[in-house]
Write a structure and sequence with these properties.
With 202 residues, this protein is of the alpha+beta class. It has a 4-stranded mixed β-sheet with strand order 1-3-4-6, sandwiched between helices. Strands 2-5 form a two-stranded antiparallel ribbon.
Length: 202
């Protein structure tokens, strides 16, 4: 009888790290990939994919930039088509717990924002935007939340950007787009789809 993925994971976590007591095949590996790529609570694998496409090594640490020894920030979004509440890819993203100190460091270090779109864990597109090119938009949000500058235990919980701000940037780079974009059109907002096709043609 074929082992389930859950049984294999359980065996491994209980000490059978060589998996001598179970049969593992290609289908198990695919099942694990699908589960991991669509994990709502972890974007690690999607970030690793984006780092690979961007030509940088992924930072294994939670602190710092997503790129190892670089100033690259990965912002993946995934559409889970099995979830009717899952929103379409729009090109937007956000930073959590932002401060002026962190914002200024991103500007000084010329951080690069990589925006990635996934559908059911499949990589659909990836674009790169210099953080500095959205500086005014970011600072307006920080000033509103922290009018007196950084204060102990005070943060801008979610500093967002959208396709509207990206369109105003001069140095946007399309680093990846799937050849099957049309197949995923229903999971991409119309403005983003139009923008991606224009970048593709440029």
């Amino acid at each position: 009888m074929r082992n389930t993925l859950e049984e294999i994971v359980l065996k491994y976590s209980h000490g059978d790290t060589e998996l001598t007591s179970v049969e593992v095949d290609k289908d198990h590996f695919k099942e694990l990939l699908i589960k991991y790529l669509n994990d709502k609570n972890s974007s690690t694998l999607r970030q690793d994919i984006m780092c690979e496409v961007a030509g940088v090594k992924s930072n294994p640490n939670k602190l710092g930039y997503d790129g190892k020894d670089t100033t690259d920030e990965m912002k993946p979004k995934n559409v889970d088509t099995t979830n009717p509440k899952s929103k379409r890819l729009s090109g937007g993203g956000n930073y959590t717990d932002m401060t002026f100190k962190r914002h200024n460091a991103f500007c000084d270090q010329d951080a690069q924002i990589h925006i990635g779109g996934f559908v059911d864990g499949k990589h659909i597109f990836q674009i790169t935007v210099p953080y500095r090119e959205m500086i005014t938009h970011f600072e307006n949000q920080l000033i509103k939340r922290l009018p007196n500058g950084d204060q102990p235990t005070q943060y801008l919980r979610s500093m967002y950007f959208s396709l509207t701000q990206i369109k105003k940037c001069d140095n946007v780079l399309l680093t990846y787009i799937t050849q099957d974009l049309e197949n995923y059109r229903g999971h991409i907002t119309k403005p983003l789809y139009t923008y991606l096709t224009k970048l593709q043609e440029a």
